[in-house]
Every structure is written in structure tokens, then in C-alpha cells.
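In the previous lecture we treated proteins in isolation. Real proteins rarely work alone, and many bind small molecules. This record shows how such a complex is specified: first the sequence, then the SMILES for nicotinamide-adenine-dinucleotide.
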Amino acid sequence: MENVAVVGGGLMGSGIAEVSARAGHDVIVIESNEEAGKAALGRLEKSLQRAEAKGKIDSASDVLGLIRVETDLGAAADRDIVVEAIVEDEAAKVALFKELDRIVAAPDAILASNTSSIPIMKLGVVTTRPTQVIGIHFFNPVPVLQLVELVPSLLTSPDTTARSRAWVEGSLGKQAIDCQDRAGFVVNALLIPFILSAIRMFESGFASAEDIDRGLVLGAAHPQGPLALADLIGLDTTKAVAESLYEEFKEPLYAAPPLLNRMVDAGLLGRKTGRGFYTYG
Ligand SMILES: NC(=O)c1ccc[n+]([C@@H]2O[C@H](COP(=O)([O-])OP(=O)(O)OC[C@H]3O[C@@H](n4cnc5c(N)ncnc54)[C@H](O)[C@@H]3O)[C@@H](O)[C@H]2O)c1
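The predicted 3D structure, ligand included, written as C-alpha cells:
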């Protein structure tokens, strides 16, 4: 699979585009408008320059030369694999997969979603090729974290799963684990209730955000605390994943606490907006 499209060039999409280009693929990033396209390009430039400064790549501009940013979904027509990384909104993703099914020409192209929580089956069944629809779930920051969850739906073919594994492990150099098509897969089904518990602890006044995070960093050797992690993931994404988990399992531990809802209402989404549980300069 040589030609890659990534739909949505936000936090995750720009990272997926970066690792794909660093592996030598021809990459198109498709954003919803010019402004978002410029922001995606800016993210890519910054990240690649950082990688060059750290000696991880020889030339940021060479890698950037493999990436094109477009605003027309039609640009995905000649791609071997399309990875969807738009907002975590089921209606938006369903609409996009219908369009991709119409647009992507190669009969064996893989249509992948980076969704954190939406059942892959819901995206597969709106296409005429559910056997080629699969979850390929990367972790943030994509250039740094090794894990990818591979999530075939009940209708995904073994060939699609095998080719996806070969791409993420053989080409991108990531490590894959296999998951069932259940909300949250493996990692988020365990991580999100943990983050929600930390938010409830903070909300109740039991401990400060700093002390909760220091507790887990110093006492459990976590690389960062749960509230700093929520800021990194994005509080809107954290809330959306919690809602999908709650919808699927109806367990109180997955219910978004009021503070999380109010922060999202206020636009305090974490690092990406400069303020969440912490303030960023
Ligand atoms: N943030 C994380 O840590 C994380 C980790 C793994 C997976 N994910 C998943 O990845 C996906 C993207 O999350 P994110 O954190 O990058 O979000 P984000 O808000 O940073 O980026 C989403 C991007 O999609 C673009 N977009 C929206 N609708 C579009 C459309 N129809 N066509 C083209 N572009 C469109 C937006 O302009 C935005 O740039 C979500 O499904 C999320 O659940 C997120």
C-alpha cells in the first residue's frame, strides 16, 4: 500500500500523516476547509522540524515533500488506504464513510477509522464494502507511541486485517494488538474510567489537580498524571469516548462527570485550546 489519504488533519490525523510520510508513503491530508488545512500543515511542519532537530529524521522538508493537503475529498480517489481521523461524531463519520465508498476507486482499498469508541460495524455497514472497513487506532502523540489497536468488525475480511497489520507493523514500524469491535477497545476501556475517576476526585475537592497527578507519577510510575493526560487527549475527545462507553455498557464508571461536561461547554479543551485542568503558554 503506497498511496495514503488521511481525512482530518487534527491532533491525530497530522500524526498519522507524519508517520506515513516518514515511512516513505505518498500522503494526502484532507481537511474540511482552507483554514483547517493550513493548521494541519503548520502542525506537520512543527512536528517534523522537532524530529529533525532531535536527529530522528534527516530532513523535515524531504518528509514534508511527500505530504499534500487538500480540501476536496475527491483527492482520495486513487488511494490504497484511507485513514479517517475526523471528529469523534458518529453521524459525521457515517456520512464520511458513505462518501469514501463512492469516491475511492481501487476495489481492494482499505477504508480505516482511527475512532476511539465508535463501533467499526456502524461505519462498515454504510459502505458497499464492509469487508474492507477496519479500525486502525493510533495513540497520541502518533510519532512517539508505538501501539496501534487493530479492530476488525464482524464483517471485516481476514485479508483486510492481515494487510492492515502488515502496513502498521511492517511499514510504519508500530506494534499492533488485536481487539474486538467493542466501545473503547482495550486501552480506552481501561484508561477512560481511570481519567473520569481522577476528574471526580478533583471535582469533589478531595485533592488538587497537581497532587492527583503527582500521586500517580511518583507513586505508580506513570509518565504523567490522569488530568495532564486528559488535557493531552483533549477534554472533548475524552467526553465523547466516555459517552460512547456509557452508551455501550451502561455502567456508571463510564458516565462523564459534570465538571468535564462544563469544561467542554466552556471550550476549555486542554492543550489544544491552551487551558484545561492546567494552563498552557
Ligand atoms: N486525541 C486523542 O488522543 C486520540 C487518540 C486516538 C484516537 N483519536 C480519535 O481520532 C479522531 C480525531 O481526533 P483528534 O484528537 O485528532 O481531533 P481534532 O479535533 O484534533 O481533529 C479533527 C480534525 O478533523 C477535521 N474534520 C472534521 N470534519 C471533517 C471532515 N468531514 N472532513 C475532513 N476533515 C474534517 C477538523 O477540522 C479537525 O482538524 C477521533 O475519532 C478521536 O476519537 C483521538
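Summary for your notes: The mean pLDDT is 97. The radius of gyration is 19 Å.
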